[in-house]
Structures are given as C-alpha cells and as structure tokens.
Amino acid sequence: MTESLQSSRPSYVTVLAAALFFVVFSAGTVSSSSLGNDDDNDNNNNNNKCGIYLAPSSIPNAGLGMYVGHRNFTMGENVTDGDIIIPVFEMDWHNMLKEDKLKFEHFLWDEYTWNGDVFPGAEEEVDDIDWLQFASPGVGAAANSYISLVNIEDYSIELGLATRPDSPGAGAQTPYHGRYFTAISDIPQGGYIPMPDSYPVADGLLRRFEQMRLRHYEKKRNDETTQQPSHHQLVFWQDLLDLVAHEYSKIWNKSRVLNAMPDKVDTIPDLLQNGGSARRDYNRSIKELSWLEENGQCMDNIKVLGPNKKRSSDESPDAGRGAVANRFIPKDGLVAPAPLVHIPDYDVLKMYKPIDSVVDAEDGNHEVIPDMEGPSQYQLLMNYCFGHEESTLLLCPYGLLTSLINHSSKNANTKITWSNTTMRHREWLEKPIEYFGEEYVAGLQFDFVAMRDIEEDEEILIDYGVAWEKAWRDHVRTFVPREHYVPAFDLNKQLDTLTFRTIKDRPYEKDGIQLRCRIWYVHQFMTEESKKKQEEDDEDSVPCRIIKKLRNDRYRVQTLKDKSDDVDCVFTHDRMLWEVPSDAFFFMDLPYERPYHLDFDAFRHAMMIPDDIFPEPWKNLRH
C-alpha cells in the first residue's frame, strides 16, 4: 500500500470488489473483432499456403489465439468458412437438484458459450431465452479478446437441417450453421483475430477507476485546465489496483478480464483515450509469419462441404454437413488442430422433464423442478464431443470446422492424435480426472492427422469408433419418425408455394409449430388501447389459426392469447379476422418441439477416443 490512503480500504474495496465480481463472472453477449499489423507483404492468393493459424495467444494466460497467415483479407471478405453453433438448454435448471453440484459449477464451456438472444430463431427453443446458451466450437471459442481494434464481425446465422426432418439423424445435429466471420476492414498478414469478451469489460472497469476521484485533493488543485490526474489521484488509483490484485490473487492469472488490466495506473488516461486496454497489447500481438510457422498450426486446411458436393461417408443420407480438404494434405500432415474443452462427468449434460413440486404446503407455493426419476436425455452437445466407454470424461473440440467432420468406419482418411505442438498441459495425460477437472482453462488438444494423401475437395472422414457405430445402427433400426413434422424454419422457406391448413384439416400445434399473423395486418382490427399494449410488449406477430379458406388467397382467421405457464402450453381464443392475405402468415416452432429436444427419439452418443491413446488414469468406470 502507498502513502496514507490505507484507511480508505473498507469503502472502496467493497465497491470495487463487488463490481469486479459482477463483470468477471456474469454472462455477457459477445461479438467478433480483429487486429492486424502493417502490410509489409504482397497479398498471396495461392491457396496452397495457410491463411489462418492457431498459435499461443498474445494475451497473458489466455491460451491459444487465431492469426492471419499467408494472405491479406480485404473489407467484406469472409475470413472463415461457415461454422455451426450448438444450443445448450437450461443447464442451471437441469442440475439444480444434483448432490454433487461441483461438477456443474466448474463447467468449462461457460467460458466459450454465447448468450441465446444473439442468434435468430433461438427464441423458439425454450420458454425463457435467458436460460439458453450456444456453444460455438469454431471462431467463437478459438479466438481471444481485443475490442478497440475491431476488424471482423460474424455474419448472420442460418437455420436448416442437413437431413430430412424424418431422418434418424434429424435430432442428432444442430440446425444452426453458416456462421461466417467477415472482415470489416482490411486485415494484413500476421494480424491477430480475437473476440471482444474481455477487453471491453476491462475498459469499463478502468473507466470506473477514472470516475473514482478524491474530491478533497482535487479542489485544492490550482491548475483547473489540466485533464491529467493529480499525484494524490494516482496514488488512490494505484491503491485500488493493488487491493484488487490482492483480493483476487487466486484467479488473477486465470481471468482474461483481470489480465487485460494495466500494471501501473498512470497509464489509465492514455489507455482510455487511445484505443483502450487492447492498445496495451498491440505490439506483442503482431507476429511474423516465420514465428507463426514455427509456433502455430494451420486452421484452414478444411472447409465446409458444399451443398452440391457428393458425400463419401458411409451413412450419407443421414450424416451431418461435412468438411472437405481446402488444399492437398499429405499423409501424416495436419488436417486441423482442435483444442479441447473438458467435461469431467457427462452427467452434467443430462436433461429432465419438468414436474410440479410443492415447496411450502401451508402457503401452497409450487415450484417446477426436474423429474430426476423420469425419462432423461443428454444435451445435443454430447454428439460433438469425444469420450471413452470406461470414463465419465468428455472432450469437446473447438477447432475451426472440426465439428463438421463425418464418420466412416470403412473409408476414414483422418485420425485423432494428441498434439505435440500447442497443447498447454501435456502432464494432464498422466493425471486422474480429478486433478484437472476443476481447472477453468482448456489444456488438452487433439490434432486431426491425415492417414493417407488427401486431395483438395475430398471429404474428411474419421472413425467415430465401434461403440458409436453400434449405437447409431441400433438407433436407425428402432427409429420412428414424427408424422407430419416439418420445422418452422423449413416451412418459412416455402411460404410462396405452401398450401395453408385450417384447424379442421389439422391444427399446426399438433406438429409442434405455430402459425403467426404479422402485426401490421392485425392492427387494423385492434382498439387503440390494444395497439398500445402490443407496442409495449414489442411483438411483431400474434399466434393465430385459419378457420376457413376464402377466395382469392384470403382466409378467415382467429387470433389467440398465450396463457402458457412453466409446465403447460395453453392458448385461448382472442378475436376473429376476415380477408387475411397469405403474406400475413409465417411459422414459429413451439418451445421444446425441435427434433433434438427431450421428448423425441434423438440420437445421443459421444465419438470414441481410440483405446490406444486414451490414458489409463482417466478410466474411472472400469468397475
């Protein structure tokens, strides 16, 4: 501590510690950004050279980061191919009654998930979108954090299944795909590609520092025109920073936010005026191509299998989207690096049906809780992770596009190995799961390696393992498709040619979807008071049903009021509308009705790690 400001500790430590706890641990919405260096090289359009590298991050203790390789990106150009995102449903609620909550409290994916309200169509997944997150296994997880030097942004996500809605694979895959990241300014070779989830929070914290002033000393200053902080102000700020470092010493080196803070407070005004906390790391973020080649791994050796490309996987009609070689890959060459998010016990991914429970018999209070004695299903995320039959451990790769790689037991051209290049904690391979399970950093990594020469545009295939293939064949044999089901996002692509059903034909709700009437048409039938309430609710449509088909593409329609609660989905009649045109209609999926939710026969099984590379200390299910 410096000078005589120690007596101030109880007041400002309490305020600042509370603020820090909130910004470090609360979930926030993130978007994409980038950082580049001076353009000293001509743009190389040769696709044979790597365009994106995975290498040690320039941010202290932030693990690995992404860098531009042997090419320049111009504004508007796609920096990465379209990756997927995976919905993760109501993790807090499904784990609320479990005895060993520690398994859930150290859920490492929390460091790599995005809020549900970021993506279109997500509001139809569950009742409360605040309970929905998305795992983004590509750039959304691999990139780290800068904010003040933004160079990329993510393009709008697409919704659509890679298989038919009645396919055994429909509930085994995410419909969210095509997440491109696009340059919003020119990015030269060697530039860093980060995400702004840490630095903006750090900048906000620095502004709080700057706003905390010592009025007694400031009033005594003679120079009223200067904007530079006084000596006493700097002493005060340094005390704050030292105290925060002391209070959070155990997590300081593991927190991206705290690592973004400067060591000395006299740099705060300059940082905030000249690019924020990201500027502090600008110089060390610039990497020479020779450094990237020596210390990094190429991330763009694969690309998305195009819609018109022929699949070569065994289960092609029901397989996922697929990935192909972006360039020739020689035998034993790197196909893709894949850092791993560890889940010590896959039990945390279990989902349960809701039941109504009496909390207080005297007051009659009820609470909706998970029925842990009833049917259960695993989160969709499990299908994108690797596991072993003798272990509770799951390892989920977040390399660029690696989640798109399909299975083939006969024609596999790629295998997984432990990385010898950028894996941070190789010692974990010799430790029991309990040793690293609670670590809040990703320390393990697979490399996808070519088993033979792979030609450009050839599909990348790995063997998911005997246990996975047996489970898949059993699922295909017993699978019963949902009759009449077509997801809303597919129906909305057919609105111009679709024949709409009346409630006598078959109510759409029976098939897990809901017809909606756009509010611009409904408004003409509403009172001013109803219109005002509608505007306050910020709704652009209302649920409705077609009562009768009229002539000239017009319909008699009844609108509905939503009376649903935490357990039951209930709609009541509202008002009748006449001569409604078909362009007033569109569809939404009802909550929990997409094919990968709990109520449906959805395939779940982790890909299998070969026994010859799976560490013995991790086999905690042998008995």
Can you walk through the features of this model?
- The protein is an alpha+beta fold.
- The chain is built from 16 helices and 31 strands.
- Strand 27 and strand 28 (554-562) form a beta hairpin.
- It is globular.
**Which class best fits the helix and strand makeup?**
alpha+beta
Which of globular, elongated, flat, extended, rod-shaped describes the shape? globular
Query: Distance between termini?
Result: 55 Å
Major sheet: 5 strands, antiparallel
Strand order of the largest sheet: 29-28-27-26-30
Radius of gyration: 27 Å
Count of individual beta strands = 31
Quote the beta fraction: 15-25%
The overall pLDDT, averaged over residues, is 78
Helix content: 10-25%
Can you count the helices? Answer: 16
Spans of at least 5 consecutive residues whose pLDDT stays below 50 are: 1-44, 145-149, 213-226
Topology summary:
Elements: H1 9-25, E1 52-56, E2 64-68, E3 78-83, E4 86-89, H2 91-94, H3 102-105, E5 113-115, E6 132-135, H4 139-142, E7 152-154, E8 158-159, E9 176-177, E10 179-183, E11 192-193, H5 199-211, H6 215-219, H7 231-247, H8 256-259, H9 268-273, H10 282-285, H11 289-295, E12 297-298, E13 302-304, E14 323-325, E15 334-343, E16 350-352, E17 354-360, E18 365-370, E19 376-378, E20 386-387, E21 394-397, E22 406-407, E23 414-418, H12 433-436, E24 444-450, E25 461-462, H13 466-478, H14 488-491, E26 513-518, H15 519-522, H16 528-537, E27 541-549, E28 554-562, E29 571-581, E30 585-589, E31 607-608
Parallel strand pairs: 20-31, 22-25
Antiparallel strand pairs: 1-2, 1-12, 2-11, 3-10, 4-6, 5-6, 7-10, 8-9, 13-14, 15-21, 15-24, 16-19, 17-18, 23-24, 26-27, 26-30, 27-28, 28-29
